[in-house]
Specification:
The complex is a heterodimer. Chain A contains ten helices and no strands. By secondary structure, chain A is mainly α. Classes of the chains: A mainly alpha, B mainly alpha.
């Protein structure tokens, strides 16, 4: 029988510290992917992933169980990402640069998957962070709108509105890819 | 595709559209929204465009995180040595990989005894062998300490002294042998001379005695005896 995250948390709080390793193994890839998509630097993402689990371990006594452990962990991870972004003072990519599509690539139809992924990454990076985080949590982490609202501490309707606005931005920036699929 | 919309330009069903796009509407809600789309070209267009955007977003995939051994993972199965090396390599910064690569290259060059020589006439010459090349005896260092120099000087002085002593001893032996030989020769010559002289003296005395005998018994005078032979007549 697979123990739930909340059940493992309870065991850790009861002194079975090594059980926290199970939570790390269960969630580290998701946290890493989230951090990498937000920070776009593998080393930063790795460090943020570690910071997230260390912070979670230290604050475990504060976890009341009102929210899901995953939501609570995502919130810690996002805060760590924001701290890192503030430290780096990342400038958003200008729209022109994000849209800087090589016309030849489009015309010649020689668009490879890797190039598409790079364009998507740059288009996402150009979005305001509140739109970007909702898109990442929804599209790549597969969370429900309720979970996203819980993590970001916003109403569900706001989460949907931000997602709509983000997709609206992206469809213009990725319009040239329309014929590629 | 449509232009970016302001909140006022958005369809009031935009939230439903987003929920429909991600399959988060109930069956009844989904049916109701599909009915709405038949009358709302904007929502229909948005749905097509957003599905296209989602397909594009799906292209950006990320590999799983290189696992970092943490204090919490002590209870998990231990990774293999090869896996640990792989993770270390992935976790290593670029400069670390450059240094490690350089060190590995130098180690391989050393293992295969690679030599790169340059001569003014022949240019560069590359050699590699599993057998180490023969090397000349290392030249003694020209830098001697004071202690070493003193020891060396003492050794040379001892050697010179011994050689001089042996030479003197040989010379003395040679002189002694020569002296002995000369002495023997002189002794032999003297003995021969004495023997000859004695024989001559004996002969002269014999002649003299015979003459005295003759004169004693003949009419010879003393003058005849001593001066008869001096005038040569």
């Amino acid at each position: 029988m697979v123990l739930s995250d909340e059940g493992i948390v309870e065991r850790v709080r009861n002194g079975e510290v090594e059980a926290f390793g199970t939570l790390v193994g269960r969630w580290e890839n998701r946290i890493y992917r989230l951090a990498l998509r937000l920070l776009e630097h593998p080393e930063d993402a790795r460090e943020v992933t570690q910071e997230t689990f260390l912070a979670a371990f230290r604050k475990l006594h504060q976890f009341r169980g009102r929210a899901r452990f995953s939501s609570w962990l995502y919130r810690i991870a996002l805060n760590c990402c924001y701290d890192r972004l503030r430290e780096r003072r990342v400038e958003p990519v200008p729209l022109e640069e994000a849209d800087g599509i090589a016309v030849e690539e489009k015309v010649l139809g020689q668009i490879h998957k890797k190039q598409v992924a790079e364009r998507v990454r740059r288009a996402l990076h150009a979005l305001p962070v509140e739109m970007r985080q909702v898109i990442i949590l929804k599209e790549y982490e597969g969370l429900t709108f309720e979970e996203i609202a819980e993590i970001l501490d916003i109403p569900v309707s706001t989460a949907k509105t931000r997602l709509y606005a983000g997709l609206d931005h992206l469809r213009k920036r990725l319009e040239w890819l329309k014929d590629a699929f | 595709m449509s232009e970016e919309k302001t909140p006022s330009a958005m369809c009031e069903m935009s939230e439903k559209l987003i929920a429909y796009l991600y399959r988060e509407l109930s069956a009844d809600e989904a049916s109701a929204f599909e009915a709405h789309m038949k009358a709302c070209a904007q929502c229909a267009q948005d749905l097509r465009d957003f599905e296209h955007v989602r397909r594009a977003l799906a292209e950006w995939q990320i590999a799983p995180m290189p696992r970092v051994v943490s204090e919490f993972e002590s209870g998990l199965p231990r990774p293999s040595f090869r896996e640990v090396l792989r993770q270390l390599w992935l976790a290593m910064p670029a400069w670390g990989r450059v240094i490690l690569g350089g060190a590995t290259t130098l180690l391989l060059l050393a293992l295969f005894n690679v030599q790169l020589e340059w001569t003014p006439g022949g240019g560069f010459r590359f050699r590699a062998s599993l057998v180490p090349p023969r090397t000349a005896e290392p030249a003694p260092s020209s830098e001697l300490s004071v202690r070493e120099r003193q020891q060396l000087e003492q050794l040379i002085a001892d050697m010179l002294r011994d050689a001089e002593q042996r030479r003197q001893e040989a010379l003395a032996t040679s002189v002694q042998e020569m002296t002995e030989r000369l002495r023997e020769e002189q002794r032999a010559a003297l003995a021969d001379f004495v023997q000859k002289w004695n024989a001559e003296q004996r002969a002269q005395w014999a002649v003299l005695l015979r003459e005295l005998e003759r004169r004693r018994y003949g009419a010879l005078t003393f003058a005849d005896l001593f001066f008869s032979g001096q005038d040569g007549n």
